[in-house]
Design brief:
Layout (H helix, E strand, L loop, with lengths): L9 E11 L1 H11 L7 E8 L2 E8 L2 H4 L2 H7 L2 E9 L14 E3 L6 E6 L5 H10 L10 H12 L5 H8 L8 E5 L4 E5 L8 E4 L5 E4 L2 H6 L3 E5 L5 E4 L5 E4 L8 E3 L1 H6 L5 E2 L2 E2 H15 L6 E4 L5 H11 L7 E3 L12 H4 L2 H5 E3 L1 H4 L3 E6 L6 H12 L4 E6 L27 H8 L3 E4 L2 H4 L9 E3 L1 H4 L23 H18 L1
Parallel strand pairs: 14-23, 17-20, 20-21, 21-22
Antiparallel strand pairs: 1-4, 1-10, 2-3, 2-4, 5-6, 6-7, 7-8, 8-12, 9-10, 9-11, 12-13, 15-16, 18-19
Helix pairs in contact: 4-5, 5-6, 9-10
């Protein structure tokens, strides 16, 4: 609603050497990963092979309380998930983790990313008689694993075989009755790291900031294509059949998605954003009196721009920390004052001055225009906007909610036209070459397909946020009726 990209999802897994309150550990970790998804969340606990779980729409503190923790009970393993829906509806049945009952034993799975061949696999499985209960591609992954589990000697070998079938982005954590497993796709599109607590507990998390929250020490990142298994005795093993590529991490993890206190694939997120601002200052200089950043992910870039340009940095926009994403309603009248509710200009900083405003991206341009107007209304003499990423010109097929070029302003206007549209005196973007160098200590390569249209993996034939939301044999009207009936039953059950 604020003309910005939505985060992906966040996953977490923990193995404890003895029975403990692993649900609360997961809860605190998910709290640290809340920025990656605010639609739904869930936790599954493994107590001696018995899996108890709870998942629902809402933020982590709204979904879980002491009563929920008592029902989940204690255990030696748990996995958790926070979700923003890049595929599938925002509905309770699409919340994760998924818990599967199978003839070879139970399995729980939580996943971050999007598959590019989920629709093809789903159609194939449905024609073979499979019945799907969700509209997200995580269930497609689960079905592929269980299909291979019939003949594979172990669940990790079933996952190894399944990785030949599934294509695209997936950083996942999963539990069997006796093992905690983490895996990352061969291109490493989404982050995943390993940590260890002082009591010997082993944890996996989408970002290292979650490790800090629960008192775990960062061990290393899961390599692209790697499968990591934690057995009952705490022994950690690795399957590297699918390893070999340097990987193509989504570069927007450094620009916007990840928390600045996280480290990903060998680079500090804060350092990368600072570098982005410094490179931007070299590429798009302008005379001005003050540099300000748009909270939150534009702040470090603004500091880097200020340091490189020699123009003073100051706080020019204040963010209301008590406005949640669900506050804004999707009607035009209710959007009009949305930016004023979330942001306010500091008049003492901008009045009578030539201002450089640094933000992480421009998607549709509507919010950028409102922020520029805020600064002008506060007395800014000039407003020069600088963006710490290149223009978005293409869809993302790997977990970001850019599902169409139709809403991308850079596909419709030139840079000069965008500047005029948002009311800025000038506009400058970071170059593609520049964004590829912001994470200067990273050990990985990057995916910049949303800026170039070139992808490490061939995109799907059918794209879109809800690209397989409707089973092939059902009409939209019939599916809508079934969806409404199911949600009503779930609400009544609750």
């Amino acid at each position: 609603m604020f003309d910005s990209l939505h985060e992906e999802c966040g996953v977490f897994g923990v193995w404890e050497p003895q029975t403990a309150n692993v649900a609360k550990t997961t809860y605190f970790a998910l709290y640290a990963l809340q920025h990656r998804g605010q639609e739904s969340c869930g936790i599954a606990v493994n107590n001696d092979g018995l899996m108890h779980y709870h998942r629902d729409l809402g933020l982590v503190p709204d979904v879980f309380n002491e009563a929920r923790f008592e029902k989940l009970g204690n255990g030696t393993m748990a996995i958790g998930h926070v979700r923003y829906s890049t595929t599938g509806q925002s509905a309770r049945h699409n919340a994760q983790p998924l818990v599967i009952r199978h003839v070879k034993g139970p399995m729980a799975l939580a996943h971050n990313g999007n598959l590019v061949n989920a629709m093809e696999l789903r159609e194939k499985y449905e024609l073979e008689g499979a019945i799907f209960h969700t509209t997200n591609d995580t269930e497609t992954i689960a079905y592929t694993i269980t299909k291979h589990r019939i003949t594979a000697p172990s669940i990790e070998r079933a996952l190894e075989a399944a990785m030949y079938d599934i294509k695209g982005a997936y950083s996942l954590v999963m539990m069997s009755a006796t093992k905690l497993i983490a895996a990352r796709d061969p291109e490493g599109f989404r982050p995943l790291c390993i940590g260890r607590r002082s009591n010997g507990a082993i944890v996996f998390a989408s970002e290292s900031c979650a490790l800090d929250t629960i008192g775990a020490e960062f061990v290393r990142d899961v390599d692209p294509g790697e499968i990591v298994i934690v057995r009952e005795n705490g022994k950690m093993e690795s399957i590297r059949t699918h390893c070999g590529s340097k990987g193509h991490l989504c570069v927007f993890e450094f620009v916007y998605f990840a928390r600045p206190d996280s480290h990903i694939d060998g680079c500090s997120v804060q350092r990368a954003r600072y570098n982005a601002g410094a490179i931007l200052a070299k590429e798009c200089p302008v005379d001005a009196d003050v540099v300000i950043g748009c909270p939150d992910s534009g702040l470090e870039a603004a500091m880097g721009y200020a340091r490189e340009s020699g123009i003073p940095y100051a706080v020019g926009l204040i963010k209301n920390r008590y406005v949640g994403r669900t506050f804004i309603k999707p009607t035009q009248n209710e959007r009009e004052d949305a930016v004023k509710i979330k942001l306010n200009a500091v008049k003492n900083t901008v009045a009578g001055k030539r201002v450089i405003l640094v933000d992480d991206s421009i998607v549709r341009g509507t919010t950028s225009g409102k922020i520029v107007k805020l600064l002008r209304d506060a007395g800014a003499k000039e407003v020069h906007m600088r963006v710490s990423s290149p223009p978005f010109i293409s869809e993302c097929f790997f977990g970001t909610d850019i599902d169409s070029k139709d809403n991308l302003i850079a596909c419709k206007m030139s840079v000069e036209e965008i500047a005029e549209y948002i009311g800025a005196d000038s506009l400058g973007y970071l170059s593609v070459e520049g964004v590829n160098h912001i994470a200067d200590t990273a050990r990985c390569g990057f995916c910049n397909g949303c800026f170039t249209g070139n992808y490490p993996v061939d995109p799907p034939k059918t794209s879109g946020k809800n690209r397989f939301e409707l089973p092939l044999s059902q009409s939209p009207k019939a599916m809508k009726k079934r969806e409404m009936a199911k949600n009503e039953r779930e609400n009544n059950d609750e």
